[in-house]
Amino acid sequence: MVSPLQRRQQRIALMQQHQVSANTDDGETLGVTPVSTQPSNQWDIVRASLKKDSAALKSFKQITDKIDYKKRHLEQYKPYFESNTLPVDIAAIFMIWLFDCKEIQQAMLLADYCLKYGAPMPEGFKSDIPTFVADEVLNWAESAFKQGHSTAPYFDQVLARFTIDWKLFDQIEAKYYKLCGFMALGKHGTDIKYIPEPAPLYAAKTWFEKAQTKYSKIGVNTRINDINKRLVKLDLPLIAEE
Fold first, then answer.
1. How many CB atoms sit inside 10 A of residue 71's CB?
2. Of 224 and 30, which is predicted with more confidence?
3. 3-state secondary structure 164-223
């Protein structure tokens, strides 16, 4: 059975043949295909297919329509995701699509691939790969936490990179520490004044203070004050005793 991508490849190849024929009619040497229209390998075919996708996506005004389109067309590209010859420019586009479609596991695998081989972000993106990945994982983790789902292992993996080799904007790091503070308190929506044990209070306060130190406008003052009030209510010191 012919796959959707193979059908598209056939259409692109046919269009290229027509272009060659037109060029020949204009007086070009018979049998010589211009470099600009002749795909050198399968990856040129994939690039041509993605270019058509990019044009199609620009026709949509609603983000949900763009996401639906990507979800429908991702399937035809999946055989290429794990290729050890996957060009980094194509890998970056696949990675972006996967994050957009919330396929976090495969997105992170391709993110690692892009980071390992120094992939640039596609034209039009202002951020680099680490910044983009950190933003996407944070958005995913915030949503997962609110829904009561685990954020492991991807949130933890990105958080660890801050102390290893990623130097990102202070605000991004602060957002990670802030979310760590909320997770330390317990489930989403946990009311600080009803927390009976000191451990989550001290842990959350440490993360909130780290976030505030990194970026003063991160918005955790109220949480820190509420924790201090609760510690006083429990007749506990404001700083955990070692």
1. 14
2. 224
3. CCCCCCHHHHHHHHHHHHHHHHCCCCCCHHHCCCHHHHHHHHHHHHHHHHHCCCCCCHHH
Q: What does DSSP assign to residue 121? A: P
What the block records as the tokens of 49 is 């297919």
Phi, psi (rounded to 5 degrees) for 135: -65, -45
Per-residue model confidence as pLDDT tens digits over 119-140: 999 999 999 999 999 999 999 9
Please name the residues in contact with 1: beta carbons below 8 A apart, sequence gap of 6 or more.
Answer: none
167 contact partners, CB below 8 Å, separation of at least 6:
none
Residue with tokens 């295909």, as numbered in its chain? 33
d(CA 132, CA 115): 11
The pLDDT of residue 3: 54
Asked if 144 contacts 108 with a C-beta cutoff of 8 angstroms, the reply is no
User: Phi and psi (nearest 5°) for 156?
Assistant: -65, -35
The DSSP secondary-structure symbol of 79 reads G
Question: Could you tell me the two tokens for 8?
Answer: 């598209």
190, 194, 199, 202 alpha-carbon torsion, rounded to 10°: 80
Look up residue 96 and give its amino acid: I
What is residue 20's three-state secondary structure?
A: helix
